[in-house]
């Protein structure tokens, strides 16, 4: 048996290639409060309850208490009525999946009809809704956003018909950081007797404090008539350890189809409130410990810091030649793009060389490729340093010029049909993108490039379905064990 100290040493070496999760320099994937005490209490709670199992609340009543406490805290934030109920999930995607599944199963007469169930979503809705459509057979009716990048309430209302089981709005949308007109969308859904879900996974734990601080926030909570469910992540701006989100329903009756029970086998009667059966108590305990530690006062202070950081970054972008905002942020997410003197993919690479980690977003339906920033409270002390690095990165990108895709490769990509693409086509694309080494076609390993601008530029000229196909092929190659 290998000594524990040796195993931990190996883990430390393996982590050296990961982006940092603390220090405020990673503006994607992680959310950093900047408070060591908060991080520690979360980790300690996860460790203490890692072996607990949320499958059976009668066996682990502590987890049930923590879950109810978290739902109660969120209910106060979200202006929920006394009838509200909720569940802890593993993340925003599971919360969204459950919102769609619950809406579908509330209407078996629609689901089982010849036409089947549909949901009306804006084009800015998180891709988790498309995943839900794929999993549950609920067709997504996608409505284009308006020129302000918000959902178009009139177009959303017009898209509702007798197959619609759910209407969706975002607070804010992930890609652009703006809050949809929830009041109008929810009213249109209610007028047709349809559920309205607000995806507040990324804004739900920070926008309520923004309102308390006197910031102008469009209405989006349960205070809006017609809102029937809200998803909000604890592991984003709740600053809890990864693996915790909440799905709240306005009433127990609305939540009931979410539950699954089965006695159709000789074992125990299975009873689940979420998609998981066995689930570690660690994430729930970690979230509970962080929320108890910070409380309203702590979260309000962190909100003040993260909004100051967001405003300073958004204001600083205006002073950098070659950059502009796609939209004025309503929350803590910033999307910015470049003019034709450079490209966002090269800027992203240049930021990485300066130890800042930002996320590229590809062009979509006329919207340009851009850089996405998820600002954390821990970034506030480093805003000036961030803006200096961003300005330097833009200057370097402008000096290099926009990354170019070979016209022949672009034409080849444009001609491919994702539905009939062959393994050889996949191999050629992966090699052309620099995602695999030349011997990968013969079964060799992946070659992960240190700079991704050329890869992203190639993906950017591909259609969304082809992007999906290429990335699936890449993931397939990436997630294969190597020989020891």
TrEMBL record:
Which family does the UniProt entry place this protein in? Belongs to the group II decarboxylase family. Sphingosine-1-phosphate lyase subfamily.
From what superkingdom does this record's organism come? Answer: Bacteria
Q: Which Pfam families match?
A: Pyridoxal_deC
Name used for this protein in its record: Glutamate or tyrosine decarboxylase
**What biological-process terms (Gene Ontology) are attached?**
carboxylic acid metabolic process
Q: Which organism is it from?
A: Nocardioides szechwanensis
In this chain, where does the modification N6-(pyridoxal phosphate)lysine occur? 236
List required co-factors.
pyridoxal 5'-phosphate
InterPro entries assigned: GrpII_AminoAcid_Decarb, PyrdxlP-dep_de-COase, PyrdxlP-dep_Trfase, PyrdxlP-dep_Trfase_major, PyrdxlP-dep_Trfase_small
Keyword Lyase present in the record's keywords: the answer is yes
GO terms for molecular function, please?
Answer: aromatic-L-amino-acid decarboxylase activity; pyridoxal phosphate binding
């Amino acid at each position: 048996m290998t000594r524990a100290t040796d195993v931990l040493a190996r883990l430390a070496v393996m982590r050296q290639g990961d982006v940092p999760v603390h220090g405020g320099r990673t503006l994607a994937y992680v959310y950093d409060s900047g408070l060591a005490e908060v991080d520690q209490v979360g980790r300690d709670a996860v460790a203490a309850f890692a072996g607990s199992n949320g499958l059976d609340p009668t066996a682990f009543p502590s987890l049930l208490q923590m879950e109810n406490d978290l739902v109660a805290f969120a209910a106060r934030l979200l202006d929920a009525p006394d009838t509200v109920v909720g569940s802890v999930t593993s993340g925003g995607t599971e919360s969204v999946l459950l919102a769609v599944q619950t809406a579908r199963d509330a209407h078996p007469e629609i689901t089982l009809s010849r036409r089947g169930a549909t949901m009306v979503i804006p084009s800015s809705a998180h891709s988790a809704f498309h995943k839900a459509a794929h999993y549950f057979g609920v067709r997504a009716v996608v409505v284009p956003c308006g020129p302000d990048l918000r959902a178009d309430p009139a177009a959303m209302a017009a898209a509702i018909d007798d197959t619609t089981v759910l209407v969706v709005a975002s607070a804010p949308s992930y890609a652009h950081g703006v809050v949809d007109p929830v009041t109008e969308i929810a009213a249109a859904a209610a007028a047709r007797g349809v559920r309205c879900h607000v995806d507040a996974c990324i804004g739900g734990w920070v926008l309520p404090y923004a309102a308390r601080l006197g910031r102008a926030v469009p209405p989006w909570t349960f205070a809006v008539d017609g809102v029937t469910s809200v998803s909000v992540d604890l592991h984003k701006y709740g600053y809890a350890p990864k693996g915790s989100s909440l799905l709240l329903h306005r009433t127990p009756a609305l939540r009931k189809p979410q539950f699954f029970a089965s006695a159709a086998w000789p074992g125990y009667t299975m009873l689940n409130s979420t998609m998981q059966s066995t689930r570690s108590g660690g994430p729930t305990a970690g979230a509970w410990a962080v929320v108890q530690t910070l409380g309203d006062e702590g979260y309000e202070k962190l909100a003040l810091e993260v909004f100051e950081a967001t405003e300073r970054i958004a204001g600083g972008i205006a002073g950098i030649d070659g950059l502009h905002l796609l939209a004025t942020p309503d929350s803590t997410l910033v999307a910015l793009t470049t003019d034709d003197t450079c490209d966002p993919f090269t800027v992203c690479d240049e930021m990485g060389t300066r130890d800042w980690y930002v996320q590229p977003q590809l062009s979509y339906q006329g919207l340009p490729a851009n850089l996405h920033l998820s600002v954390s409270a821990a970034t506030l002390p480093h805003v000036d340093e961030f803006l200096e690095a961003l300005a330097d990165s833009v200057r370097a990108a402008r000096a290099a010029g926009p990354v170019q895709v070979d016209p022949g490769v672009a034409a080849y990509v444009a001609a491919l049909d994702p539905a009939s693409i062959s393994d050889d086509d996949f191999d050629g694309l992966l090699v052309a993108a620099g995602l695999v080494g030349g011997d990968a076609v013969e079964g060799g390993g992946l070659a992960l490039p240190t700079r991704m601008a050329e890869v992203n530029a190639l993906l950017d000229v591909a259609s969304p379905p082809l992007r999906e196909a290429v990335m699936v092929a890449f993931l397939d190659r990436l997630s294969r064990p190597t020989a020891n």
